Amino acid sequence: MKQVNLSGDKTTVELGMGLTWAEAYQELSKDGVNVVGGRVSGPGVGGLTLGGGFSWKTNQFGLTCDTVKTYNVVLPNGTITTASANTNTDLFFALKGGLNRFGIVTSIVYETHPQTPQVWAGQRVYTGDKADALLNATEVFSRTVTDPKAQVILTLEGLPVLALTPVVLMFYDGPDPGDSFAMFDGIIPVSSGTFKQPFASFVAAQATQLLQNNRGTSHTVSVSAVTLPLLDAIKTEVKSLTAQMALHSGSLVSGGVDPFLDYGQYATDSAFPHADSPLLVSLYCAWGLSIDDEFWIDSVKLSIANIKQVAIKEGIFKDSFTAYPNYAVGDTTAEELYGTENAARLRAIKSSVDPDGVMELAGGFSLQ
User: Fold this and answer.
1) In sequence order, what are the residues at sequence separation of 6 or more whose Cβ sits closer than 8 angstroms to the Cβ of residue 364?
2) 174 and 49 part of one domain
3) Residue finishing a domain among 88, 114, 140
4) What pTM was computed for the model?
5) Which residue range is the domain that position 297 belongs to?
6) N or C: which terminal CB in the chain sees fewer CB atoms within 10 Å?
7) How far apart are CA 98 and CA 166, in angstroms?
8) What's the Cα-to-Cα distance from 44 to each of 27, 32, 353, rounded to whole Å?
9) Which H or E element spans position 347?
10) What is the DSSP string of 299-328?
11) pLDDT, tens digit, for every residue of 34-57?
């Protein structure tokens, strides 16, 4: 299930669900094309796509699921079928954010786009005393930069030996970013790895396997804009959670926000509603011992609730916003993930394709 089958005209590619994004990008780079896929090396092609999929190219083309042409699926009754804009259209809708509730997806056909030989991208790491300056720079970037090829991700990380470590990932989909990131230039990092490099090399360097032997959870809230009070609330929650690490076998706390432009203009009819271009605030916690599971799960939910209250006060939260499935905590309800209307539609589709609840055996979010 690791096939990479590029069409003759190079406008679409079929990717097997056994691939990681790093593997897919490496193969596609040989033909000078790319897809709207994952931003780090570890996640699999299937999981990210079925949850919606935010990408370094989302500003330009939408979510990963918006660029899917066809899903190849084995239904719970064993039937092999396809879902597209013209065939099994309800199933096509459901698989765009509806995760693993409807069958086993074996491969996906994506639209492709030309990829420049090099992009300007990388990571900068800072000491904690630079946090406020970075919050200001991120707010300025989100408010002023309109080039869809430019993107940043700010994360504030808490570690057992370091109270607060800001990290900024910068990406420009081309070799010359111009002054897109000028607001960060006066803030001196302790390490800087931003330079011209192949897209596949950049993503491969963003490893997520470092925490694969930890326990972990994440949660998220969506907002319509990035403001300084919102960023300060994220910092406050990261510092609060980091202070609990020694008592609860903590190994990492990470909080951040993803500024995007109006990617909702590319939104298709999808289980995960994103026509309003929601921006993601996320918190992730990792720890070592099972006895601390309840503490960290409850804590990350409380922290996101606190950040949401700030977003409401700032006027940047909409009742129509839902929790992004790939970041949401495990007991998030179908209505919280998809909204009332989409949740009802997904339940009807699931009853049609999986009346016996076979896919419930795979775990994951419940639609009930």
Assistant:
1) 99, 100, 101
2) no
3) 114
4) 0.96
5) 119-314
6) C
7) 33
8) 15, 21, 24
9) helix 334-353
10) HHHHHHHHHHHHHHHHT---TT----TTTS
11) 999 999 988 899 999 999 999 999
